[in-house]
Each structure stands twice: as C-alpha cells, then as structure tokens.
Amino acid sequence: MADAGLVIIGAGLSGLTTALFSRDDFLLLEKSSRPGGLLKTEDIEGFLFDFTGHWLHLRDPRTKDFIADLMGDGMVTVNRKAAIWSNGVMTLFPFQANLFGLPPAVIRECLQEAVASAVSRAAGTAAVPGNFEEYANIHFGRGIARHFIVPYNTKLWGVPPSEVTAEWTQRFVPMPDIAQIIDGALGFSAQAMGYNVSFIYPATGGIESIPRAMAARLDHSRIMFNTAPTALNAEERWVEAGGRRISWDRLVSTTALPDLVKMTVDAPDVIRKAAAELRCSPLRFVNVALDVPTPLDGNHWIYLPETKYPFYRVGCFSNAVKSLAPAGKSSLYVELAPDTTMPEAEITAALQDFLIEIGSITEKSQLLFARYRNHPWGYVIFDERCVPARDLILGWYRSKGIKSIGRYGACTYNSMEDAMLEAMAAAG
Questions:
Q1: Full-model pTM
Q2: Could you give the domains of the chain?
Q3: Which of 67, 134, 160, 311 measures 20 to 30 Å from 201, CA to CA?
C-alpha cells in the first residue's frame, strides 16, 4: 500500500491548489520553511516586497469563486496604470497603441511600417514568422518592433528575439489594429488592452497572503516543510525526501522540469538529453525603498526598452496598494536584464539617476535602500528546441503517472490563474 494516494512536490501556488482540490489523501513536500513558492512577501523595515510583480488576473468562474471564497473581502481590484519610458518621454502602455508624445521621426517610422505591414497581411503577401522578431516585424511593422518590442524583449529574455519562437505571444502581447495604432499616434485615448487591464491583490500582507490562506485550509500533518526530494523512481513509484522513501499512486511535481529529470534515477538517456535542451533566464531584481509617496507618475510599472538602462521594468507595489509601504514612502521592484554585468553599486546609481530623470525623486538620498535578489528561474526561453523537448519529457512522465505542472514544471509562459486551473485539473 502506498504512503499516499497523491504526492505533491512543491507548496507554491500550483502545489497548494492541487492539494486543496485533491480527492485523494495527499502528502505535500516543500523544500523551504513556509508555503508560497515564488508567492513570497518580504518585509524590510516595514516595506513589503513580493518576488517582483505578482498581480492576479482572473477570468474563469472557477478561479473567481475560489479566490472569493478563500479571501473574502480581503482583496482589492486595481485598474492597471502602466507606461513606457523611451526617448526621454513617458508614453502609455502598450507602446504600439500609444505613440503620441514620442519624437515625430519615431512616430512617422512606426506608422509607415505599421501601415505597410497591415497592407501586406491584408494582401496575403506577408511572410510566415519563424521567430518572435519576425512575428513583431510582420504584425506590428519594423518601426514598432525596432523602437520597443525587440529591444525590450531582448533585455527581458537575455537572448535575441530571433532565438525565441512566437508560440507564447498570442495572449500576452496586445494586438491593436491599424486604426488603433493611428489613433494612438494622434493622441486619442486608446481603450486599455491586453490580458492585464485590471487585477486583484490582497488588501494587506502582500501576495503571500494568498498561499498563507490556502495552507491554513490544509491538514498540516500532510505537509512536510524543509523537505527537498533528493531522488525519484518513476517506474517503482517512490520518492526519497526527509530521510525516508515515500511511495505513491500518483505524483504531481511543480519543481522546474530539468530539476525533476535530474532527480529521477530511472529517467532514460533520451529524456536526460531532452532536459539539457531546456533553457530559462535567471530572475534578477532589486527591492527598493523610496522616501516619497507616489513615484513613477503613479504608474504601477514602467517598461524601459533602451539598452542604456540595466533594468527592463520598474514597478511600484505601493502605487497599487498603499499598505505595502509606510505612510509617505513607497516600495519598488526593479527587474534587471539577466545578462547585465554591471556591479550592484553602479546599478543603484543608475536607478537613482533614472528616478531623478523621470521626476520621481529630487535627491539620491531619497532612495533609502536597495536589496538585490536572484533566482535561477525567471522566463522559460522558447527557442526552437524547447517545445519538442518539453513535450517529450512531459509525455514520458505522464506515462508513469506523474504530472509536471506550473510555469517551470511544465516549461510554459502562464499566469497565476493558468497555474491554478492546471492544478485543479491535475488534482482530479
């Protein structure tokens, strides 16, 4: 008889959701001392920082009902306010629908190329994109691609967009039509677009409030904290963790897929070779406290495509929810290009200069502290080898009664809602 009908590896959002919706007896293995995974909130001198931006976008009735039941009235709804800083001016997000305010030469280039690409697509003469850079050129025009999409995504992924497929783009890259692009260039307010036009967030306590509430509903005798699995046998259905061998009928893993393969003692060579094809950019970011109440022109986040800045996005938690910083102050997250080699002191100085440049602070001393953080898993790199390798690995594990889920467990580009829905399905 198995030790558990279901063993779950990882007590992040995916793992906790799986446990809550499981109809089997479960055992949840978590390597850290508390639940949450990347849904962690750090308190530094009264400033609250999540593990970069974690804003919850819900569309499915199942997730809406679940979070409403879980959190009650403890969530607030926020309408997104985001912008782009380039060419020395602040423009609205998304770039492609809000060209007004940019230098006339930039607007002209973006419009000319956008119209040309639209004509080509309408005539059926547009090429089929083979990668994300070609996708941007074909669907937005070379001007918009050159001034925003290509440089921004180069900084985000850490590799040229020509090495990235267009697989992930459909939901996450706003697609205005040519009329919207022209209206945005003329200064007419564009309707908010994209998957994240609004979001919900805990009123207090940061994003970790959600996994804490989830864990509170579970039998803690079924959760093993500070317990990292060290070995797994898929055929014999056991996992070693916490100095014991645990048998299972089903297993759901949320650990990064290459790490799962490494610990699987009976993984065949073809699976190990496939795992070696999977790449992910590291997540490097800075938690920053400011002695000012509403920086970034009140925006929740700002995109920075230009290479002169070592960071690609700067967000402000407390602009969305005031409880995340002491009164009159603010808490920021700064996401760094994964390939930057600039020393921390120089990055901090560049950030101070940027904040002065956009009028968020007037003196460098108003940046109270900067705390640097790193994580090996940021964004899965969807190159031409990724999907075939991923699908081969996931198929092999499914044949053994193992489901690998989550952004890194399934090597996908998903939202928190996607993670919950995938976990609900895996639980059953």
A1: 0.94
A2: 4-40+208-279+382-427 (3.50.50.60), 82-186 (1.10.3110), 280-380 (3.90.660.20)
A3: 311
